[in-house]
Structure formats: C-alpha cells, structure tokens
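Q: How do we represent a protein-ligand complex in a form that can be generated token by token?
A: Start from the inputs.
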Amino acid sequence: MMIHTNNYILNIKELWDDVPEEYLSHKERYENAIKKAFIVLKVLRQLHTGNIQITDHRTPTNVYSIQDGIFRNVNPLLIHIGLFWSTIAAQASTEQQAEWLQPDSSMIGTYVQTELGHGSFIRGIETTATYDSTTDEFILHTPRLSAYKWWPGGLGNTANACLVMAQLYINGTCHGLHIFLAQIRDFDTHKPLPGIKVGEIGPKMGFNTADNGFLGFDNHRIPRTNMLMKNVQVLRDGTYVKPKHDKLTYGSMLLTRVTLISDLAYQLSKAATIAVRYSAVRRQSPIKSNEPERQILDFVSQQHKLFITIASSHVYRVVGLWMWNSHKRVTADIHEGNMGQLPELHALACCLKAISSRDASALVEQCRLACGGHGYMMASNLPQIYAYTTAAVTYEGEYTVLLLQTARYLVKFWRLAAEHKPLPQNFAYFEDYIKKNFEQWRNSPEGIIEGFKAIVAGKTKAAYDTLQCNLRNGREFEEAWNMASVQLTNASEAYARSLLCEVFWKETVQLSTKVSKSLAIVLEQLAELYLMYWALEKHGDLLLYSTISRNDIEALQSRYEELLALIRPNAVGLVDAFDIRDEVLCSTLGAYDGRVYERMMEEASKSPLNEDVVNESFHKYIRPVTMKNKL
Ligand SMILES: CCCCC/C=C\C/C=C\C/C=C\CCC(=O)SCCNC(=O)CCNC(=O)[C@H](O)C(C)(C)COP(=O)(O)OP(=O)(O)OC[C@H]1O[C@@H](n2cnc3c(N)ncnc32)[C@H](O)[C@@H]1OP(=O)(O)O
Ligand SMILES: Cc1cc2nc3c(=O)[nH]c(=O)nc-3n(C[C@H](O)[C@H](O)[C@H](O)COP(=O)(O)OP(=O)(O)OC[C@H]3O[C@@H](n4cnc5c(N)ncnc54)[C@H](O)[C@@H]3O)c2cc1C
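Then emit the structure tokens for the protein with flavin-adenine dinucleotide bound:
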C-alpha cells in the first residue's frame, strides 16, 4: 500500500490528545503514551516489512521526529527502538540475530545498565552473571540493594525482556562487564517471572511518559547462549574467548552518544522556531518613543539570544552527520579487525555529546527566557523541550565524566608533544604551541579556528603541568588526576568547541559551493556568527592563549553586531526552513499562523479549573473563611 506516512500518522485520531497531557495523572500519562506507542510501533513495523511505503522523501526522519508531537514528552518505547534492537544488531552473533531480530518478535526490550549505586563508574556494577557449566546457564543475581538496576526506560511496566549489563564470573574468575539477554515478564500474562523483582521508579523532572524502572534478580537463570556473543564468547565447557578490544561491550553507549548530537540539533531547532516566530508576533515597547511598539525580534539583545540558537542547531546537525559518517567508517574498520580509530572516535563522541547536550539545554532555556512570561507556560512547549534536553546532559554518560574521558586522550598527545615525539597531523598545533610558533591573529573565521586551537593547546598544557606537579609532589596518578580535573575538563570543553567551529566552518564553505549564491551568503553568515559568538564568549581565553589584541576584540564585536543585523530579515525564513509542523511543535507561541494570543486563550479554556464557573473548593474552604470574616 502506498501511503504518505506523515499524513497517515497525522490522521490516526487515537494518536492525538483532546485533553492536554499535563492534566493527566502519572498513571494516565503512561497509559495514554503506551497506547500511542504501540500504534506507532505497528506503523514502524509495517514500514519495515514494506506493507506500507514511503512517498515522502523526508519521511524516515519525520516518522521519528513526529513522535515528539504525538508524545509531547517521550515515546515509552524509545529505548526499545533506539537501544535494545541496535545493541542486539551490533553485539549479538549472526545466529543470535537470526533468532532475536524477527520483525514479529514478542520481545519488548530495554537496555539495563545503571544501578542504584553505580551509573557513571560502570566497572563498579554489582549485578553478577555466574556460569553454571552443569546446566549450561548463567545465573543473574542482585547481591544487595545498591545493585538493583535503576533508570532503564520502559522497564517499569512495559518491557518483557532486557539487555542487562553484568559482571561475568566463570569458575570464580571475574571477566568484567558483559551483556545478557534476559526475559523478565511472561510473554502472555506479562507477570514478572519467578526470581524477578521489577517496578517503576516514580515521577521525574521530564520523561514522564516513559516508565523508567528498577529491577532485581534473585538467582535468575538464563541459557548460556543468551550472552551477546559477536565480539566475545563463553564456550560450553566454560572457556572464555576474549574480545579483540576490551571496550567493544561499551559500543552501544558510543553509538547513542553519536546519535544524540543530531537529536539535540533537532530539539534546538524546535526551540528556535518557537522563540523566533513568537518574537516576530510579539510587540513590546517602541524603540523610539514616538513610534509604535516594535516586534521584540527588532531588539538587538533579543537577536543575540536567538540567532545563536538557529546557528547552533545547524552546527549540531552538521557535526552530528560528520560523527555519524565517522562512526560508520570506524565500525567498518572494526569488522575488519582494525581497532586503531576507536580511541579517537570515543574521545570525539564523549566531548561532543557533553557539549552538545549542555549547549542545547542552555539555549533552550535561553529561548524560554526570550519568550518572557508566556515561555513559562507548558502550552509554549519550551518547558518540556528543556526537561528533555537537560536529561541528555546526564544520561548516556554524565557531562563531567565524559569530558574527563576526552581529557585522557588530549593528555596523551600533549605528553608526546612535550617529549618531542611525532604527533598525528590533527595535533600538530600542540608542537607549534610548545615552539611558540604563534600565528598573527586574523579577525576571520580561519583566524578564530586557529585561536581556538591555541586555547586547546594552552589549556591542555596547563592541566598537564598541574598533573605533573601533583605527581612530583608525591601524589599517585589517580589522585593527581582528580586534583587537576577542573583544568582537564576545561581543556576538553575547549577541544570540543574548536572541533565544532572547524567542522562547521569547513562544511559550510563546501556546502556553499553547491547551493544558490543567495543561500550560500546566509549559510556563511550563520556560520560566521557562530564563530564570532564563541570568540567573544571566550575572549578571555583568547587573550590568555592566542595573539588577539583588545582592538581585535572590539572589531569582532562590531562584526558580530553587523551579522545580527544581516540575519534579522531572514530570521523567520530560517526557522520556517527547519520545516517543523505545528503538530510536532505543540506550541501556542510557535505555530506557523502566528495566532499566539488566540491559541493561548484556546489552550487556557481546556484547563479543568475552568470547567465549573464556581469551583467546589469555594464552598468547602473559601466561603467558610471569607463569610466568617464578613460577619
Ligand atoms: C531511534 C533513534 C534514537 C536516537 C537517540 C535519541 C535519544 C536517546 C536515546 C536514549 C537515551 C535515553 C536514555 C539513555 C540510556 C542510558 O543512559 S544507558 C547508560 C549509560 N551509561 C553511561 O554512559 C555510563 C558512563 N560511563 C562509562 O562509559 C564508563 O564507565 C567510562 C566513564 C568510559 C569509564 O569506563 P571504565 O571501564 O572504567 O574505563 P577505564 O577507566 O578502565 O578505561 C578508560 C579507557 O577505556 C576507553 N574507553 C572507554 N569507553 C570506551 C568506548 N565506549 N569505546 C572505546 N574506548 C572506550 C577510554 O578511551 C580509555 O582508554 P585509555 O587508552 O585507557 O585512555
Ligand atoms: C532520563 C534518564 C534516562 C535514563 N535511561 C537509562 C536507561 O535507559 N538505561 C540505563 O542503564 N540508564 C539510564 N539512565 C541512567 C544514566 O545513564 C545515569 O544517570 C548516568 O550515566 C549518570 O550516572 P549517575 O546517575 O550514577 O551519576 P553519578 O555518576 O553519581 O554523578 C553524580 C555527580 O558525580 C560526578 N562524578 C561521578 N564520577 C565522577 C568522576 N569519575 N570524576 C568526576 N566527577 C564524577 C558527576 O560529574 C556528577 O556531578 C537514565 C538517566 C536519566 C536521567
């Protein structure tokens, strides 16, 4: 059947709420979301099997992104779709995949790693999987309260299976973390299997349509063949066959970190669309006293808040794609047995996931503030977008923890540079910094990129020197590292920013040659604005580590303000170009037709507090007091 999938989904009535989700109880929210999730899953399965076909070339992304409108919050099957299947596809053997990856599978799964006691430090995970060679089974066990799994999305009520990360024991030897497929609920009755204690963890700041859950195992047995065995094996006699690289088990985290960059770009484009469109409708104060009130988008300070959000959305879209392609390349190499590029990919994914999530949540909040009081309304959808993006700063590798991973990589190259050993081309600037081969500052995108590299070198040097000093003072390495950790994270942050600037600028220049001249001009303006914005934000660092002068900074400021003025006439067009449907934006402030006040009044009329002209609490609580006072 040929179907225009977007319209098809939009026309499924049960997917769209009459009562806004905020008015539902915790339980109702879940039940409403899960009803919709299974309708969406059915559509995805039909797409997969070819029972329905795509007629809109943009549909693959739209099926995913339209979910934001359907759930307003999050699809409770996000982890089932985004992590459970992808981990099986990446980490299970060919035979396991043939058995488990059936389109009509009964399994609804989740990814179960974090415990009450351990999230970041996964080597500290306490759940065990002990091989019993007499029965050819693993025994999954939760030894104590802190070992209870805690957080996995969909675990609370929905999942009947999971991929669980546990410490593998064979004949008393611990072989570290491995992934196991475990059924946790009966496929027919959905009751927890014997030896399984499972439930939901309660309301959160966001993600409240997803049933994040807890899970404990009481000596729960699974077949040996349920360990994911593509990269590592346990044979029938208990022989352990090591993986080619001991971090291949962490592959799903790496892939999700890469994917998240593009997802955050999309969240940013939603926030920018809402805030820019609203700013074009909203009038507040004249600029000159004898003039009518102006669109708030005409205030230069408002442009400063918003245009960086438009630009950042493009940055993360471009860099997300760049990382996706790198991931594809490195994965192909790994298939050939070449692990050489894995450390670099991990280092890039860590700092870029950290900075993209932090930037996205800060900029979404900036968009909310830019909408004044109305941005605080749930009906603006900005609070929900914020709650969604800020979670990404923590999940899939916490911000600081990931920056410290990238710092390990930077310090390795600084050590090579300090010892005058050969460096890869992309770190040649470390050597230049040591030799004081400083370029003369140029007030141009290329000059700013060089300036950011000098900051990376300068901050890595400072962190490295502190580390060495701590070591000379007799500290053990880990302690010395902890003492230098503020500087180490600063170096990583700078590294991420320099990558973002360089990749975005180079990709934009390339893209500009392939599009119309007028479009190329706007794209380059946005890219330049991004670089200028961050150069000005980091001018203190540039003064410390590059050859920039006070005059250069003043010139940068002027150019930045010029760019704001140049972008202003295209601002609404730029967010319209994100092409996000009203049904997905779910915002009274950001709809395409600009009927902000009418929509706000329509939404207010849905409040249950407007159902009765006089609320019954008046008779119960207010009247007895106010009438008594009157007497
Ligand atoms: C449908 C599309 C979906 C789109 C996506 C949209 C939305 C998102 C979807 C879902 C999100 C929702 C929920 C999120 C789900 C989760 O949160 S799952 C749980 C995630 N948990 C974490 O991320 C834990 C973070 N911790 C770690 O990753 C590790 O503990 C650590 C910090 C990396 C340290 O590990 P450890 O084993 O202790 O390492 P150690 O210190 O011994 O060694 C470090 C060396 O190992 C290298 N390394 C580490 N990780 C990797 C890796 N993944 N790949 C390659 N190499 C790795 C590292 O470089 C070090 O190497 P050295 O040479 O020693 O420096
Ligand atoms: C919405 C949401 C969904 C989630 N979904 C899932 C899921 O589906 N599956 C799953 O398994 N997990 C999931 N998680 C869990 C998530 O992966 C963890 O919360 C995350 O990895 C952070 O770990 P933590 O909570 O233990 O934080 P902690 O590690 O306890 O961090 C607390 C603080 O300690 C600091 N810290 C910790 N270690 C260090 C260090 N070495 N050096 C310096 N500072 C440090 C951190 O920077 C932070 O400031 C989810 C979490 C959220 C919020």
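The chain has two domains: 2-244, 254-420+442-574. Residues 254-420+442-574 form a domain with the Butyryl-CoA Dehydrogenase, subunit A; domain 3 fold (CATH 1.20.140.10).
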